[in-house]
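Working notes for the structural subgroup meeting. M.R. asked for a predicted model of this chain before we commit to crystallization trials. I am recording the input and output together here so anyone reviewing the notebook later can reproduce the run.

Input as submitted:
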Amino acid sequence: MNPEVLENLRLELRRGSLIVAVLAELRNEQYGYTLRKSLEEHGIAIDEGTLYPLLRRLETQGLLVSEWREQDKRNKRFYRLSPQGELMLTELLLDWEDLSKSLKAILQQPQPGPTRKSQAASPDEVPPQE
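Returned structure, recorded in token form:
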């Protein structure tokens, strides 16, 4: 198995999941650090270099709104889902459920038995005489 290929496939799988996780977490307003910690508590580690560009992109797409506010004597940017983001999250979750059901059905299919070729006698076995 090629570890580099596996890592690339894991990253691809994770990318789409991160978007859904971020949108879902932002149903409740949070600033970047608390969002990152909340995701981490749920088993989704994300570094700042990935999270903040994603937040900016989602805001540019109209899925998030943000505002600067002072908290604990520091200015922090708080994010939350926009009305459009709420609709988008609902649609993505429906798609997620459909995809999950489909994958589950595929993975639960019985595995095929050995093929005829693999059942054939090996070169050192003598085939039965008729």
